[in-house]
């Protein structure tokens, strides 16, 4: 991390501080923070999508969700105020794509709804409701009727929602 | 015999997408969709297949014109039975390896795992499109027949050289764009940070780019942006973002966007009033306060009641109209002379500046109304633009699922609350979407509705009538009282009329709620609109009656009502109304909400707390603001009272909400509701008040004993006089007078403006219609493309299976090996 630190601008100092705090107890030679440490950030701790976020922004070869400082900056940039709708919808799509196959099929949507409705049993939807919900979602957003929602369809749905940009935000 | 699969879309069909505005994101995504869906058929299959009949059929279909789309739809219907069999194949899991390879390399599916190459290619395409759009900006040809422009995304290969060339191409494209566009394009690409730094170094290598690298934007666009912000944003949005941010976040997180929209509306009103107050105090109150006029000090006993009635020593203060002089103040006076109360005489000091109070009064009020009107109309149009969708969709479920999670929420408790909220909303939406309508008896339903409407309209009418009679009675009583000596009881009687009106405002909405509960509407949205309409009608009729009283009766014959200064009287009345309204709101909040909560939880044993009635509270706010606007002409400091009232109201409602109420389980379309509120504020409220203010200024004779317009036949004559004076003293500014007489006094100008306005609206609606038609055509086309895709994939799979089957000698085709 020595090289990146030496080229760091003043405006990145606070982010670098937060990031290096995560590494304080570990070996200083590590360039990437393991996923468990990232998940201990207070902003991500209770977020149901935290594991997916780590996987999406991680560029490590081992696919273990660990983040380097640049990945961390990418994460913050995508969730910041100044990211455009395109970027946010792109990353949102990747976060919601639980099986990483490039589209949101029925399984992805089911996992997404389960994340939204919470962990406890009584807050989840019944299987009947879930089936109905997924078929309604596909009916509304799947324009080419192939049974999945691809990125363009997702972005089309998102563009109709005025609240997306303001809700897809994480502030350190 | 075997033809290679060759679907070349671009020369055959092109959609003139430039007739749609380029920077609309919804339409952008629509373009993307078409591109991706259309070219999904272009990906080369690793195995060539015989599809002779299919290719010719396919080509015919592709080559047909848009007008044949409907024909195609009919054709499709015939093949539906075949298709249903094929769709079964599509959802099967046992795809062959070849089919899987084809599926996974389709551009619409590989978008999620986009390699850098893919993203760069897309960025390339978009920058080319942008460049082309800018060049062809002048001639936007609106062809009647839409054509699809196939942008041909080539199949990606993992070749590094390929990536490099793509990158170079992108850099060249970026350099050909304007600087601002370049920055925007870079911002909008979802590449990683390292990639972007590399690209930036390459693309911004020239001098202009160097300045951009240090995040400076060229000065003219900066100026434009700054001007834009100053005109509309600075006044309104920037300052509003900071106030009460934390409290609003907490409320929104706990109660949802519906309740939050009420508080945001409150904040908006507060800003309007702050603006009014600042302008008034700066140009009107301050000059008059520094140079108080001469008048005989009146002996009034100081009792606490003055604060409520506005009479007594307050009536001769800066609060009301009667205090202001009709003279010109000369600012060369020294302050100590002014406080001695002798006033400033005219001196022959050549450096003195004259400040004409009547003129200042007239222009201040006029200009504040004008600016408020412009800001209202602008925010209403923005709000409309946000909530009105050209592309109508059936439901909100997909939007809800994809965009309702607020990532800012970090506390465990709030996260759980949010999950619960989303669950209930999803369940409600599901039941609304899928619930069938019960067939009630039509006749009984109609009779019930008729009864409900007659009850509400009748009660409104009787309320208005009652207020009219009561007001007349109170005036007679006041005349009698005025002949006797002034006592506390007589002063308190002044509060009777406002009290009665506030009572009516409080009780009748309850009656309307009861009536609508009895009616039992199917859709909650219809119920909401009906209740808003009834409440609005009530308030409009009450205010109408009062205005008639004040402006029609009192102002016309002030002597009959025993008034020296009718404007001050009207100002005091409005002040009293505002105060009583506030007092009754406090009482309602304390008794209505708190005690009702105790009652419902203790006695009725209901587990759920009462729900905050948003529509009713918002209409209360609008009513209060209408009173303020009505009164600003007569009471320049009334906005200050309204500001204090709104501040107290905010904290009171917030604490009441946190203690007494709970989140509603009903869906609340926040953006449409805020549009509704702003348009209610603009149309009945602001329009009505501006009409009455204009009526007052133009047609009512000001009282001759007090106020700045003492000796004038009408209020606006002050402006006219000044214009004439200007013509005589300063001939260079004579054109102002001409402009004034042309624009303000000539009704033709107003008609012209109204005509232009209507034409603009008409043109916009036509454009909207056209866009809707295009969108529906595009949607149909996309569906058909999707069906084509499904069809081809299933045929691919079927043929592959056929080949795999070892014992079918007759139908084994000879594979031709033309590799793609």
From TrEMBL, chain A:
Record domain EF-hand: where: 84-119, 129-164
Keyword Metal-binding included in the entry's annotation: yes
Record's keyword terms, sorted: Calcium, Magnesium, Metal-binding, Repeat
UniProt xrefs under InterPro entries: CIBP, EF-hand-dom_pair, EF_Hand_1_Ca_BS, EF_hand_dom
SUPFAM superfamilies per record: EF-hand
Gene Ontology MF annotations: calcium ion binding; magnesium ion binding
Protein name in the entry: Calcium and integrin binding 1 (calmyrin)
Source species: Hucho hucho
From TrEMBL, chain B:
UniProt-annotated stretches for the region Disordered: 60-81, 800-820
GO terms under cellular component: plasma membrane
Family to which this protein belongs: Belongs to the TMC family.
Compartment annotation: Membrane
A Pfam family recorded for this sequence: TMC
UniProt protein name: Transmembrane channel-like protein
InterPro entries hit by this protein: TMC, TMC_dom
Amino acid composition bias (Low complexity), ranges on this chain: 806-820
Keywords for this protein: Membrane, Transmembrane, Transmembrane helix
Topology class, membrane: Multi-pass membrane protein
Keyword Membrane: yes
Gene Ontology molecular functions: mechanosensitive monoatomic ion channel activity
Domain TMC: from-to ranges: 565-671
Transmembrane segments: 226-247, 259-285, 359-380, 450-471, 492-512, 532-551, 577-596, 673-698, 748-765
